[in-house]
Write a structure and sequence with these properties.
Two copies of one chain form a homodimer. By secondary structure, chain A is of the alpha/beta class. Chain A has helices at residues 6-13, 17-25, 32-45, 51-58, 74-89, 103-115, 130-138, 162-175, 191-206, 223-235, 248-261, 294-310; strands at residues 63-68, 93-98, 120-123, 143-145, 156-160, 181-184, 212-214, 242-245, 270-275, 288-291, 318-321, 324-326. The first copy, chain A, starts with 5 loop residues before the first helix and ends in an 11-residue tail after the last strand. Chains A and B meet through helix 4, helix 5, strand 2, helix 6 and helix 11 of A and helix 4, helix 5, strand 2, helix 6 and helix 11 of B. The structure holds a DNA duplex (30 and 30 nucleotides).
DNA sequence: CCTTTCAATGCAAACGTTTGCGTTTATTTA
DNA sequence: TAAATAAACGCAAACGTTTGCATTGAAAGG
C-alpha cells in the first residue's frame, strides 16, 4: 500500500522532481522528449498524483459539498444525482452529506465540509432557520441554498416558486369544480412548506373557498407520514372532494391509506401531489402533480456555485424557477357527475 | 474567504503553534490553563482545522469512497444511504461517485478516489470484469466489492447469495403450482445476474421444469426496461403462469405493461421480484419479492473495509448473506383454480 | 545547595505537491 | 568571436498540520 510519489519517478529518471511535476501538468518548459520519458516511467511505476498534497499548494480541492436534509427522500436523491452529474461535467467531485433532518447535524457536516476545504457547498436547509445556525461559517466557503429565501437574507439561492406551484394546483382543482379541498402538509418549518401552504391559502381565498388543513405531528414528508395522516382523515366520512398533498411522498402515503380504506382515487376523492418524483409517473400510482424542474435546478445550482467560486467578488444571486402542472390520473372533474 | 490557521491563533496567544496543535488534539502535555486559552481564541477567531493539511501528515483522510454502478437505481440509493450512515457512525465521511454503467468511467472515478487518498473504497462493480480493469489500482487502496466473486479473485467482498435467492423464488412459485415460469432478466454481464439466472435454471431443472428466458437488448435493470420487455411478452397470448423478474425495478416495469395490456396481477399471471426496494412494499405495487438485507450488507461492508484499513496484513475476506422471501400480493396459488 | 526529575513548551522536520527564480547549456545575432 | 537570447531544467520555499526531540523552569530528592 505504499504509494509512489513524484520524487520516486524523478529519482528513477535522474531529473529533479520539479521537472516531473511540470511534465505531468503539461508545462511548455519541459522538452517533448523528457515529457515522454516521464509519462512512460509514471505508467511503469504506477504513479498517481496525490490530490491532497496538490490541494495544499494550489489552495483548491475541486470538490463540491452537498448537504441534503435527508437522502431517503426520492426527490433528494434524484436531485443529488443530477447535481453529481453536472458537477462532474464541470470537473468537480461531490462529497455528499446527510443532515438527517437535524439542524445540529447540519451544522456539524457543514463544518466538516468546510474543514475538508471543499471549494463550495450546495445546501438543502433542514429548516428556515438553518441560516442562523450556519451564519458563522458561511463566510468561509461559497454556498448556495436550495430553498427560497423568505427574509432577504444575504445568501445565494435557487428554488422553485413554491407559492406559485400550490397556487397553480389549487386553481387546477378549482377548474375541475372542486370546492372543498383539503391541504395535507405542514404550514411551518421550512420556507418551502410555508410558501406552499400560503399559495394554497391565497388561491382558495381568491376563488371564494375556505382553506382547510389537516395538521399532524409528523414532521417530515415521508410516505408513512402521509399514510398515517390520511388514515385519520379516512376514518371519518369524507368532507372534501380533493386532497392537495404538499409532496408526492405524502400523496403516495395517502394512496396507500385510501386503498386500505376502500376509497377510490380519483372516483371518491381527487389527489394532487407536488414534486413529480420518479414514482409519481408509475401507472399504478399515476399521480397528478406539480413538477419541480429538477435537472434544471441541479444544473443552475452548480453553475451558480461555480460562478461564486471563480469570482468571489460576486454578490448574492438567486433564481426562482417556475413549477408546472403534470396531469395524470389522480384528479377527476366533478362536472361529469 | 481567507481562513485562519493554527499559526494565527498561536501568534495571538504568543505561544508556538505546536502548543496550539497539542491543545486542540487534547494532548496531556499541555497545561489545563493554556488549553482553555487556546480553545477560547480559536472560538473568537473562528478557527477550523484544515483537514487536508492534517491528512498530509497523518496519512489518513478518514474518507471512504463509494462507487455505484448507477445511483438512479433505488436499490443503490437505499444501500448508499445505509452505507453513509454506518460510515459516519464509525467516524468516516463518504465520497460518492457514479460509474453510470460505464466501465471506463468506473476506472476513472476509482483513480480519482485513490488520488484523493480515500482510506478505502466500497465498489459496486458495473460488470463482472470490472476487476480486470481495476486490478492495477487495487493494490493502492483497500477495497471491498459489493458483488459475488465468481472466479476466486483476490478481493474482499460481501454480497447476497443471488443463486440461492432465485432458487428460493423459483421453488416458491413451484410450490404455488406454477409450472411454466418465465424469467425476465439478463444472463450475462454482472456476476449478480449470472448467479440469479443460474439459480432459476437449476431450480427449474430440479423440479422438472423447463427454464424459459426472455432476452432483451435492454442492458440495465430499469423500470422502463422491464416495461419494454414485458410489452412484447404481453403482445402475444400468455404462455406462462408466472414471471420471475430479476430485479424489482424490472418487475415494476412489468406491472406497468400489464396494466396497459389489461392483464391482471396476480389473477392472470403471477409476478415475483428481487431486491425488495422501498416501492415494492407500496400497496399499489405490493410486490412479492426476494429481499436483499440491505442494512446488514451496508454495515458489514463498511465494517469489513475498516478492518482491512486498520490491519492491512489481513487477507481477503468475504461474506455471503442469505436472501429471504417476502410474500406480498403479486403471486397467487394455482391450487384454488 | 546541587542534582535529578518532570511538566510544559518550543524547534524543526516531514507529508507530496506547485511554482518563482536562478542556473546551465546551446543557439542565435551582430 | 563575443555577447545576447532562449530553452530546459534544478533549487528551494510554501501550503497547514503533526510529532519526535530539545529546551526551559520549577519542584523534589539527597
Amino acid at each position: 500500500m505504499t504509494k509512489v510519489t513524484i520524487k520516486d519517478v524523478a529519482k528513477v529518471l535522474g531529473v529533479s522532481y520539479a521537472t516531473v511535476s511540470r511534465a505531468l501538468s503539461g508545462s511548455p518548459e519541459v522538452s517533448a522528449e523528457t515529457r515522454k520519458r516521464v509519462l512512460q516511467t509514471c505508467r511503469e511505476l504506477g504513479y498517481t498524483t496525490n490530490y491532497v498534497a496538490r490541494s495544499m499548494v494550489i489552495k483548491r480541492t475541486e470538490i463540491l459539498g452537498l448537504i441534503v436534509s435527508n437522502i431517503d427522500n426520492p426527490f433528494m436523491s434524484e436531485l443529488a444525482n443530477h447535481i453529481e452529474e453536472r458537477a462532474r461535467a464541470r470537473g468537480y467531485n461531490l462529497m455528499l452529506c446527510n443532515a438527517s433532518h437535524d439542524t445540529k447535524q447540519e451544522e456539524q457536516v457543514f463544518q466538516l465540509l468546510a474543514g475538508r476545504q471543499v471549494d463550495g457547498i450546495i445546501l438543502f436547509p433542514t429548516t428556515s432557520n438553518s441560516y442562523q445556525s450556519l451564519k458563522p461559517y458561511l463566510s468561509s466557503v461559497p454556498t448556495v441554498f436550495m430553498s427560497e429565501n423568505l427574509y432577504d437574507l444575504p445568501v445565494s439561492y435557487i428554488a422553485v416558486d413554491n407559492y406559485r406551484g400550490t397556487h397553480l394546483g389549487t386553481e387546477y382543482l378549482h377548474s375541475l369544480q372542486h370546492r372543498r379541498i383539503l391541504y395535507l402538509g405542514r404550514r411551518k418549518g421550512s420556507t418551502t412548506h410555508k410558501h406552499r401552504a400560503q399559495g394554497y391559502i391565497d388561491a382558495c381565498r381568491e376563488h371564494g373557498m375556505e382553506p382547510d388543513f389537516v395538521d399532524s405531528s409528523y414532521p417530515y414528508s415521508s410516505i408513512s407520514a402521509g399514510y398515517q395522516i390520511a388514515r385519520n382523515v379516512f376514518a371519518k366520512p369524507l368532507t372534501h372532494t380533493a386532497i392537495f398533498a404538499a409532496t408526492d411522498s405524502l400523496a403516495i402515503g395517502v394512496l396507500q391509506a385510501a386503498q386500505e380504506a376502500g376509497i377510490r382515487i380519483p372516483e371518491d376523492i381527487s389527489l394532487l401531489g407536488f414534486d413529480d418524483i420518479l414514482h409519481a409517473g408509475l401507472p399504478t400510482i399515476n399521480l397528478t402533480t406539480i413538477e419541480q424542474p429538477k435537472k434544471t435546478m441541479a444544473t443552475m445550482a452548480v453553475d451558480m456555485l461555480l460562478d461564486k467560486i471563480r469570482d468571489s467578488s460576486k454578490g448574492y444571486s438567486h433564481s426562482i424557477l417556475t413549477p408546472s402542472l403534470i396531469v395524470r390520473g389522480s384528479c377527476r372533474s366533478l362536472e361529469d357527475v
